[in-house]
Design a protein that fits this description.
Layout lengths: L1 H9 L11 E4 L5 E4 L1 H29 L2 H8 L23 H28 L1 H4 L10 H21 L13 H17 L13 H23 L5 H6 L2 H21 L14
Antiparallel strand pairs: 1-2
Helix pairs in contact: 2-4, 2-6, 4-7, 4-10, 6-7, 6-8
Length: 275
Amino acid sequence: MQTDGFLEKLRIDDDGEVSYEFIKFDDNGKADLFDSKVIDYKLAGLLTIFVSRFIITHELGHLLNGHCEYLISKEKNSVQYISMFEEDNSKTIKNVSSLDFRTLEMDADAFAATDNFRNLILLYEKFEDMVDKDLNIKPIELFYWWSFAIRSNFLITQRIISDEEYRTDKKHLPSVARWILILGSIINIIDNGMYKINYRAGDNKEKLLESLTTGFLFAEKSYNERFYTNYNCLEETIYSTDYGHYATATQMNWENLRNELQKYSRLPLYKSNNV
């Protein structure tokens, strides 16, 4: 039978147990067997790497952009710790306002987003050499799963620490606001052509933006269904006067803070053309 010959080519023993969801043929007609358990395991690993890289590069942003030395200069003989998320018992520092802290966090988020996007481009262009084929994803879907992973991370944080409230004394913007600003920085990179992207056949800028969008929308859908919540980052920000006020104030404050950070920064600092 044709099936027997096919199974023989795959070296599958009729008596053996094989767990898989489907068989996929590559461009050369070679059949690959994909195990659903392996796919789930590998995908979980990829998402963990994406989130871990974002957290690590966020903290690197604080170090390399001079945030820590800046804070030390404001309060001598004191080791400064900048938490990634809001803490009720966080220490205040003389001459550093909550707005300044929110601005430092925005800069560290943007630093991480820029680094992560540059890494995604590298993985996309060298997909066959650098990405495990057992994931069974297309190169463009790397952007989808990155968006899913980072949005999921902020959703989890938002629910755990209940940081939806905008307040002048808070050192962090709400998680949803931070995600929208991160997404905005990525879109800005794409729109301005900051990095050259060698699109594969069938891919383009529109498909890249679609992958990023559908990724975070799926994260919200999955999270809402599991925890009976109703998170929607677009509705929570587009129609929020608080978001508009606080996000704009933070962005406007960047230019003032940037001038103070320059003498401590190890890297060139972002300069906006709109401020």
